[in-house]
Amino acid sequence: MKTSYSNLPNGYLETIEKGLAAVRTFRDGLSYGVGKREENLARLKAELETADTVVIGAGAGLSTSAGLTYSGERFERYFFDFIRAFRIPDMYSGGFYPFPDEETRWAWWARHIYYNRYIDPPKPVYRDLLRLVRDKDYFVVTTNVDHQFQRAGFDKTRLFYTQGDYGLFQSADHSIRRTYDNEEWVMEAMAAQRFVKDENGVFQVPKDRLISMRIPARLIPGCPDGGAVVMNLRSDDSFVEDDGWHRASAAYSDFLLRTRDAHVLYLELGVGANTPVIIKYPFWALTLNNPRAVYACLNYNEAVCPKRIEAQSICLDGDVGEVLKRLENTFIQ
């Protein structure tokens, strides 16, 4: 039976609706912000120090900055056999590849999940961010599904993963609205492909590079309620918004309501143009409706704001991690 969440506020839908409604008011176009780079760094540092609260909106660019790249050397290191056999260009594309059998498909997904969910990223960008906000009244909303905020030590009660979690399966039967932890399965599936753990307990390709692109049939994951499973990633209305998702959505709604008139810094990090309705547009709307609010956009080649809130905005173009490190190194103690 589907659980009813009608008694809980839905921060996800509420903010999307507000964002879409506000977009109509931003017909003056976009701006790259005002002021020189050093001035904007100083402004952002001051906001981090003086704001009553910080709402962090994080997209894929934050994880990319942390080194969780889906192509290049990291992809080639762990997926060289899939690249050679199927000519898959990157990890994202591999998630949609029509593999010849379930043993191969789930071998792919075990690696994809493990190297993006169950290890720390190569660069300490998430931990740098935590050091900047740990003493603030903060909340995080993110479209990322890699769990890196919790790995870095962010308070899980102040996190809302809107689009799912690499660490969860859901039933392929859309009538079963439950999710299932996959960590134990991932570890078994990695070992079954002959990956070996290094001195830090992280699975690596063995020196002889003799790994398998298939897992045993007995390891093909299944639903405890019967039938097949799929990843708990939002792609259509079959995505399961479980109890944890709804609690986080309600907490996000409550947080925004409680702080709507405060001196708020809406800190947008690495959010692209693919899903602007989830973070970007709502942050614009929240800033517009609160004269004490400040919107900060840190992004590589996409640091923009609406002209209508230009005076309340800080736009910093560049690598998010480098900007955060610069702020941390110059932070007034």
Polypeptide structure, described:
It is a single chain. By secondary structure, this protein is of the alpha/beta class. It has two domains: 11-65 and 122-165 and 241-330, Rossmann fold, CATH 3.40.50.1220; 73-120 and 183-220, no CATH class. Helices cover 38% and strands 17% of the residues. The strands form four sheets. Strands 4-3-2-10-11-13 form a six-stranded parallel β-sheet, with helices on both faces. Strands 6-5-9 form a three-stranded antiparallel β-sheet, covered by helices on one side. α1 (11-23) packs across α10 (243-258), α1 (11-23) crosses α11 and α2 (37-50) crosses α12. The longest helix has 16 residues, at 102-117. It is globular and about 60 Å long.
The helix-strand sequence is: HEHEHHHHHEHEEEHEEEHEHEEEH
Overall pLDDT, averaged?
Answer: 95
For CATH, the homologous superfamily of the largest domain is named as TPP-binding domain
Shape: globular
Distance between the termini: 53 Å
Largest sheet, order of strands side by side? 4-3-2-10-11-13
Q: Helical percent range?
A: 25-40%
Rg over C-alpha atoms, rounded to the nearest angstrom: 21 Å
Largest sheet: 6 strands, parallel
Could you give a quick summary of the protein structure above?
The protein is of the alpha/beta class and 333 residues long.
Question: Keywords, please?
Answer:
Rossmann fold; alpha/beta; single chain; three-stranded antiparallel β-sheet; 38% helix; 333 residues
